[in-house]
Design goal:
Chain lengths: 163, 212
């Protein structure tokens, strides 16, 4: 079965390590956003790994917590000072298109995260695009430390489409 | 007449200095007790800056050791390169940023530990800009990122080795978004950014001092 293309009004969540969170100039512990660096591929990666927010059931807050718990339960290295950037699929695709990238946002479940989304045709390194995303489009963030503790694998079945 | 003693001294029980702390004078006042506590804390839990510079260590060492050594190297580099340019408050501020950023408990183990070459560029850039000190971040490849933020306006600069800097500016002017990016040297940065206004807004001292 081909991977599902995410609807443009859905959202994807990206784990962001402490060093790639934007800090207040006068308080190194105060997070004010994410850095564009958070969206850069590592050497050897050809897709950007994210988690599908609407895969999880509940209110938006519950969906965010569901996605975070699923990431905690996966092989990802989530530290207590990590953050999570939330972006709207359609907006991310539009900004990427304006920079001549025709990205694909696809649900590609993995064994350790059934809600895994691969963003394909993603540029390996485009600092201008990444900073723009971090500033305006993929800029909503939550911190791991603000969330209740606990890890739970994503369910096998998506909450979307609602039955 | 003084009688010289020619007998061998009676040493009795050989001198045992005991633990190292036994050699320290015992505190006699509350103030000296505080000093004593501070000193012993430093002795037992040295900060990276109190360590001497090491020769290159073999690869494959644990991450926390590599981060600790990197921190020590950055602080020593600050002391040798920029001591005269930072006041104590600025230096403490920078060290706090470094301590926070290179904390082993929050470091992503997939990231390359930031390099001294990138740190040197960062220091030089901050000195050339002579303005607000930036917030710091890192790249996955071992470089520092310096950031300045004013509301929705963001200046982000990656400090690469050998004085190279890669910069991105996103700002709003009269409701219109403007973005620009480029790569230059730390020394030329104030001039390169001048058309986009930040030198006047964020680095007022640098604008008139940068070499042409």
């Amino acid at each position: 079965m081909p991977p599902t293309k995410l609807p443009s009004d859905h959202h994807i969540v990206r784990n962001v390590a402490w060093g790639k969170l934007r800090k207040d100039e006068n308080d190194p512990e105060k997070v004010i956003g994410v850095l564009g660096e958070a969206f850069k591929l590592r050497p050897g990666e050809d897709t950007l790994s994210t988690t599908w927010l609407e895969y999880f059931v509940g209110t938006r807050r519950e969906q965010i917590f569901g996605a975070i718990r699923a990431m905690r339960a996966s092989k990802l290295e989530i530290k207590t000072k990590s953050g999570f950037a939330i972006g709207n699929v359609g907006n991310v695709a539009d900004v990427a298109a304006a920079h001549n990238y025709s990205i694909r946002v696809l649900h590609e479940p993995e064994d350790d995260n059934k809600a895994h989304v691969a963003v394909r045709r993603w540029p390996a390194d485009d600092m201008a695009l990444f900073e723009l995303l971090a500033a305006e489009v993929w800029s909503e963030f939550v911190l791991d430390s603000e969330q209740d503790e606990g890890a739970q694998a994503a369910p096998d079945q998506s909450a979307w489409p609602p039955s | 007449m003084t009688k010289l003693s020619t007998a061998a001294p009676n040493r009795g029980k050989s001198y045992d200095p005991g633990p190292f702390l036994g050699a320290l004078p015992l505190p006699s006042t509350a103030e000296s007790a505080d000093r004593w506590r501070t000193t012993t804390r430093t002795l037992f839990n040295p900060t990276p800056s109190s360590y001497p510079q090491h020769a290159p260590r073999p690869p494959g060492r644990p991450l926390n050791e590599r981060l600790f050594d990197a921190l020590a190297a950055f602080k020593l580099r600050t002391a040798t390169l920029a001591a005269a340019h930072f006041n104590p408050e600025e230096r403490v501020r920078l060290f706090k940023q470094l301590d926070s950023l290179l904390d082993a408990d929050s470091w992503d183990s997939a990231d390359v530990v930031t390099t001294e070459a990138s740190f040197t560029t960062l220091l030089r850039m901050v000195l050339f800009l002579k303005g607000r000190q930036p917030a710091l971040g890192i790249t996955g490849s071992g470089n520092f990122i310096a950031t300045w933020t004013e509301g929705g306006d963001r200046l982000t600069i990656e400090c690469k080795p050998e004085d190279r800097v890669r910069w991105v500016l996103v700002q709003n002017l009269d409701g219109q978004r403007e973005s620009a990016a480029g790569e230059t040297t730390a020394r030329r940065l104030p001039i390169v950014l001048r058309p986009y206004d930040p030198p006047k807004r964020w680095f007022p001292n640098a604008a008139n001092q940068a070499p042409v």
